[in-house]
Amino acid sequence: MKKKILIIGKKGFISKNLIKFFNKKKTNFYSISFKNFIIKSYLGNKEFDYIINCSSNKSYINNKYQSQNDYDLLIAKKIKNSKTKLVMLSTRKVYKPKFNIKESHKKNPTCNYSKNKLQS
Q: pTM for the whole thing?
């Protein structure tokens, strides 16, 4: 059975490349902007196996953490009663610089974005 994937965010580097990759692999996916995802009622009740959040908010990147700027949190709240898995793209900036980083490694956030991502 093919997995159904939703990509949130259409304009960024990562989302554009994911879309190209999934098109080449003939993957069953959809893409939508964050704004349209929040406005729509979960795309007409379509169930997705995975949602990959590639969207971001400038306030989240530049300022101290506020939950209304945390798109991962807002998406998670919207899908909490479904079986859909949310893929949150993290960043190396959360961890102390080294090769082969794992989630169990020491954290060392140094900027607002990495501190916010760690809180997310």
A: 0.86
